Structures are given as structure tokens and as C-alpha cells.
Amino acid sequence: MKSSLILFFIFTISIITLPTMAQDLTADEEIEEKTISLLRTIDLFNLYFKKADANQLDPLLADRYMHTNGSSAPYTKKVWLNYIRSRKTKLDTKALVITEYGMTDITLTFYDQVALVNGVVFSKGEENEVPFDKKFRVTHLWVMENDQWKRAGFHDGNIE
After folding, report:
1. What DSSP element (H or E) covers 48?
2. Residue 86 CB: number of other CB atoms within 10 A?
3. In the β-sheet with 96-111, what is the strand arrangement from edge to edge?
4. What confidence category does residue 21 fall into, taking pLDDT thresholds of 50, 70 and 90?
5. Buried-most residue among 6, 17, 124, 157 (CB within 10 A)?
């Protein structure tokens, strides 16, 4: 009788916990899928930024995008894309030469269809023949819109 009761108890607990374990596995798989998708989008975004390709960056930005650098007032999507176009002119005329650009130390935190991203951006090159080597701590806010990650917010602070 005692062993039957123990078996019944183990069986009942396993029935209760199995769906929970399956849900956790599904949640982990969903986080992994979101992570891969968002990291790919960030890589593309950074490539387009390095090239100053406003046409490719535009659909990766939320309509109400807010961009701030250091202590500056926020830029709208339109103002920031105009800055990117002026940066493209500098790149084309070699007034700006980027030799290295990337993002490291990336951490992602997901909240449903929103992600908070933190990392370090580094940039090396020359502007008007003056060398630069910069690092910034950045925070991004990404939102999922129509099955596409879009950057909704950005802020950075100078490290070096």
C-alpha cells in the first residue's frame, strides 16, 4: 500500500510538472530565436551605419525613433537620417575614413516584443585627416513590428 501511494504521488507530480517543463523549453527556444534574430538585425544595422546607408537604415528604425548622444537633446528619426546622409557625403569625399567599427560586450534583455540592448561600440579612423579611436557604452531599445526588429531608441556615453 505504501509503495502504491508513493508511485501514485510520483506519477501525479510528474503529470503536473511535465507541462511546465515543456513550457519552459518553449520559452527558452523563443528567447534563443529572438536572440538570433535581433543579433542579425543589429549586425546589419551596424554595417549600414558604417557605410552611412540611410536607405537601408530607414526601415530598421521605428517611426518614433529617438536618438541621443551623450548630453545632446534627442533627435527624431528624420533628423538622425539626415545626419547619416551628411555622414555618407563625408565618407564619399574621404573627409571621414572608418578603418574599424563594431560592437562588443552585447547583453540582451527581452520583454515580450521589446528588447533592451547594451554594449560597447568602437570606432577607429580619420576625420579631416585627424585620427580618432573612440569607445562608447550604448543602450538601445528595440521593438518587434510586423515580424521585424526596429530600433526605437538609442543613447551613448563616451568611454575613452
Report:
1. helix 2-51
2. 11
3. 75-76, 61-69, 148-158, 130-145, 114-127, 96-111
4. very low
5. 124
Residue 29 backbone class (left: φ over 0; alpha: ψ -120 to 50; beta: rest)? alpha
Q: Are 125 and 100 in contact (CB under 8 A)?
A: yes
pLDDT score at 18: 38
d(CA 37, CA 83): 27
Q: Distance between CA 125 and CA 46 in Å, rounded?
A: 16
In residues, how long is the chain?
160
At 118 the three-state DSSP class reads: strand
User: What pLDDT is attached to residue 2?
Assistant: 53
In this structure, the strands spanning 148-158 and 61-69 are parallel
The pLDDT tens digits of the residues spanning 103-151 come to 999 999 999 999 999 999 999 999 999 999 999 999 999 999 999 999 9
